[in-house]
Inverse folding.
């Protein structure tokens, strides 16, 4: 079961907003924050994805989800309305959470330290180490986290690493205890992290792909930091809509190159239709061609092949939070006794 303490101002937020204080709860009730830094158009979809994933993974636990965003993330008027119902980031500083999830953001600077939200993000990371049992960092947030914690600099890729990639489980860890030896995971990023740099700084790699590199990894500090270069929260349609968006950007001349097909995602019939669209776009570059994107054809055939793995990862993470919460309560009782 999952409930909102504070939700966004969109349709989802109006329907499900609950305003109530954090309560001293049982170990089966977990307070989790979601810092949603996604672009305006993806804000509500991101909340839906994480709510659905946490709900499926929660089993008999109650998850109370509170939404935040980094205030310096550039927003349009539409985006500011979407986040107007989120809790203020400053509300974090005087409280603790069982767990925290920090999403990525659309990069605007070559150096992450030049992003307008860098100061707020690093303050959140410092807070999370002292005030959470574990924090999940996704995509760009993962890259920012390792840069801040250990000075590990991500390196740019020749093109976007985009699609669904087969990964293998590396060793044993409680977070991947029930994951299959081989699993699929969607990725969407322009940069990568050298595995050797992670290992040299004491990170533990959990999953990796021969084609996409490191997928998930962790580092135990005062809090357990969990890093995903991939996106277990994505639903079946996310990559399709992102690919369509990127084609639109090419046709509007907002990007120079035609986007690559997502790896391992579309079936042959859809690939044929999309390849034909690309051929037309390269000789007649205009936005009207986007109407020929085979959305209905593609949508009927894409599948969420990573869902069971994603639920397993998050179920194990919630179990870890529950165990840490129970341990903390026992320690407090012993001190009082």
């Amino acid at each position: 079961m999952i409930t909102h303490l504070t939700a966004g101002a969109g349709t989802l937020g109006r329907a499900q907003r609950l305003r109530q204080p954090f309560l001293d709860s049982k170990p089966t009730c977990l307070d989790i924050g979601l810092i949603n830094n996604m672009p305006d158009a993806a804000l509500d979809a991101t909340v839906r994805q994480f709510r659905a994933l946490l709900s499926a993974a929660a089993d008999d636990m109650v998850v109370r989800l509170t939404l935040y965003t980094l205030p310096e993330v550039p927003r349009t008027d539409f985006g500011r309305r979407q986040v107007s119902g989120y809790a203020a980031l400053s509300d974090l500083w005087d409280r603790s959470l069982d767990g925290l999830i920090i999403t990525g953001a659309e990069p605007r600077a070559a150096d992450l330290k030049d992003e307008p939200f860098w100061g707020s993000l690093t303050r959140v990371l410092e807070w999370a180490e002292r005030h959470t049992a574990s924090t999940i960092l996704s995509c760009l947030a993962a890259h920012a986290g390792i840069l801040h914690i250990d000075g590990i600099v991500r390196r740019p890729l020749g093109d976007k690493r985009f699609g669904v990639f087969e990964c293998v489980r590396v060793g044993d860890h409680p977070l991947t205890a029930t994951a299959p030896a081989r699993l699929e995971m969607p990725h969407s990023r322009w940069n990568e992290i050298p595995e050797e740099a992670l290992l040299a700084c004491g990170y533990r790699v959990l999953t990796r792909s021969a084609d996409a590199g490191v997928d998930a990894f962790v580092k135990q500090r005062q809090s357990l930091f969990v890093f995903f270069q991939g996106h277990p929260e994505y639903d079946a349609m996310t990559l399709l809509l992102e690919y369509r968006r990127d084609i639109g950007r090419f046709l509007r001349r907002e990007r120079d190159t035609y986007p690559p097909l997502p790896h391992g995602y579309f079936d042959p019939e859809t690939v044929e239709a999309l390849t034909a669209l690309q051929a037309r776009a390269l000789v007649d570059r205009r936005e009207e061609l986007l109407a020929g994107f085979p959305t209905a054809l593609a949508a009927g055939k894409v599948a969420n092949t990573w869902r069971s793995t994603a639920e397993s990862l998050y179920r194990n993470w919630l179990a870890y939070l529950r165990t840490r919460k129970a341990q903390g309560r026992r320690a407090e009782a012993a001190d009082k006794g």
About this structure: Residues 307-336 form the longest helix (30 residues). The radius of gyration is 20 Å. Residues 6-24 have pLDDT under 50 and may be disordered. The first strand starts at residue 2 and ends at 6.
